[in-house]
UniProtKB/TrEMBL annotation:
A GO cellular component annotation in the UniProt record: cytosol
The protein's assembly and partners: Component of the translation initiation factor 2B (eIF2B) complex which is a heterodecamer of two sets of five different subunits: alpha, beta, gamma, delta and epsilon. Subunits alpha, beta and delta comprise a regulatory subcomplex and subunits epsilon and gamma comprise a catalytic subcomplex. Within the complex, the hexameric regulatory complex resides at the center, with the two heterodimeric catalytic subcomplexes bound on opposite sides.
Keyword Zinc recorded: no
GO terms, biological process: cytoplasmic translational initiation
Location of this chain's protein in the cell: Cytoplasm, Cytosol
Full protein name: Translation initiation factor eIF2B subunit gamma
Family, as annotated: Belongs to the eIF-2B gamma/epsilon subunits family.
Length: 506
């Protein structure tokens, strides 16, 4: 059975100031939608689409906010045109070959606009009606050399009682700057080493929550059912969820009108009820899917956390959520924060070095050295005696004389004047670094101008805009500023909202 793929394009809160996300809900005119941020001078969503093309999914759907979907679709038009050209060239070359039947036409890419305030709400209210078979939920920001068939085989070989399969990967950035990593979590899962059952996800707790209460609270019922529970802080959610078709029935809602009119003439109340008659085909007859109500008005991370808790919270057995931790033999990176964004670029640059059969560096006519581990975009100007290593330089950039750029990312249209040193920096589009400046571990917003002879380390340089019409004393606006964040599966706070009082310290 083929699988439908849905790629969620979030707002990129942890990639600010380079994404369009703004904490005050004012659009960053110099930023890009998260899916279009470049990794190795390619939009990060292109890597996900390439991965999906290898998997031969039934269909590929790109899900983004209605404000961003047209921009994303327009930016991907050259990519889709290139796919068609490549297919035509290969089909012509194989026209007389006996292996032509192995060639498959690239899947069409559908673009779905959403106005949901969270990824869980988008799934429940806008996507479930489009799901007709097993499906997979993907982020727009992962880069991996692990083939998709590994993921699909794990899903198809799951235990019969697993209604979904989540994927986690080892955190390779523990030594990095903690302020750039984002929220971290305690992940609870059962390895089931002494049985034939595969590992299952049990619960997730925020490190902030544990630090605040000074202990890790685990419900007694969980330990009764899974006494050999593993608690880990070194695995991170890949936000890849392979789901059975039956899960769409469990999450679906059916609107029924209840005539509850008061004497004041209130409107009819519409209540959400779980759809009935759910009988999964591959479950055992004595283990029919129990019709619990799942609140999806939250991030997907919380939705699948609640599904994992569902397996041990009740006295009646419930279906489990499987977990698979990706092997370290391959590389898996999510560019969901600035530090991981840098690592994703370096991963692509290292692949470029391995694939290159030329010398270790290329010297331009002006005696400027561009390393084999560097990528320079089109229409760039690089003057004399400049050195670029392990860096990605976007299109239309201008680099002056005697500049040194190492381990950095320059987006399109950046201007670097003479004798500038950049180390581990991200420079936004159309920013300007004035001459004789030295920046180390800095982030510079698009169109920002760094003064001459600036020496900065570990700084984030952004423009501050004051709006006289804003009421700075209004707390309501600040309180609602986090609504609509479609990357909340990473940053949101995992609380103990529905665990009850039966907790104890482990």
């Amino acid at each position: 059975m083929q699988i439908q793929a849905f790629i969620f394009c979030g707002r990129g809160e942890n990639l600010s100031p380079f994404s369009q996300f703004s904490a005050d809900e004012v659009s960053n005119s110099h930023g890009l939608p998260k899916a279009l941020l470049p990794v190795g001078n390619r939009m990060m969503i292109e890597y996900v689409l390439d991965w999906c093309n290898q998997a031969d999914f039934k269909e590929i759907n790109v899900v983004a906010h209605s404000d961003d979907i047209d921009l994303i679709q327009q930016a991907l038009e050259p990519y889709m045109a290139l796919r068609e050209q490549q297919y035509e060239i290969i089909s012509k070359s194989l026209s007389s070959s006996m292996h032509i039947h192995y060639l498959q036409k690239p899947r069409a890419i559908n673009f779905l606009a959403t106005k949901g305030h969270s990824t869980g709400e988008t799934l429940q209210k806008e996507l479930l009606s489009k799901i007709t078979t097993d499906f997979v939920l993907l982020p727009c920001d992962f880069i991996t050399d692990i083939p998709p068939q590994i993921f699909i085989d794990q899903f198809r070989n799951r235990d019969p009682e697993n209604i979904a399969l989540t994927f986690y990967y080892k955190n390779a950035l523990e030594a990095a700057d903690k302020k750039s990593i984002g929220k971290q979590f305690f992940t609870l899962y059962a390895k089931n080493e002494d049985s034939e059952s595969r590992p299952v996800l049990l619960d997730i707790y925020s490190k902030d929550d544990v630090k605040k209460s000074k202990n890790l609270k685990i419900r007694t019922h969980l330990l009764w059912k899974y006494p050999k529970t593993t608690v880990s802080t070194k695995v991170l959610s890949a936000f890849i969820y392979f789901c059975s078709f039956e899960l769409s029935h469990l999450l679906s809602i059916k609107e029924t009108k209840e005539d509850q009119k008061s004497s004041g003439g209130e409107e009819e109340i519409i209540s959400n009820q779980v759809a009935t008659e759910i009988k999964p085909s591959y479950f055992r007859t004595e283990n029919e899917l129990v019709k619990d109500f799942i609140n999806c008005n939250k991030s997907l991370g919380k939705v699948f956390r609640d599904l994992a808790r569902r397996s041990w919270k009740h006295s009646t057995p419930r279906e489990t959520v499987g977990i698979f931790i990706l092997p370290e033999l391959g590389t898996f990176v999510r560019a969901n924060n600035l530090n991981a964004f840098m690592e994703a670029n370096r991963f692509i640059l290292k692949i470029k070095v391995q694939a290159s059969a030329t010398n270790t560096q290329t010297t331009t006519a002006g005696a400027s050295a561009i390393g084999a581990d560097a990528i320079v975009g089109s229409n760039c100007t690089i003057l004399e005696k400049s050195n670029i290593k392990l860096s990605a330089v976007g299109a239309d950039c201008k680099i002056g004389n005697r500049c040194r750029i190492g381990g950095s990312i320059l987006l399109n249209g950046v201007t670097i004047e003479d004798e500038v040193i950049l180390e581990n920096c991200i420079i936004g589009p159309h920013a300007k670094i004035s001459k004789k400046s030295k920046l180390t571990n800095c982030y510079v917003e698009g169109s920002y101008i760094v003064d001459t002879r600036s020496a900065l380390k570990g700084e984030t340089l952004t423009k501050i805009i004051f709006d006289d019409s804003d009421d700075l004393s209004d707390d309501d606006g600040a309180e609602s500023s986090s609504e609509g964040d479609e990357d909340e599966y990473i940053e949101e706070y995992y609380d103990d909202d529905d665990l009850g009082e039966d907790l104890f310290q482990r």
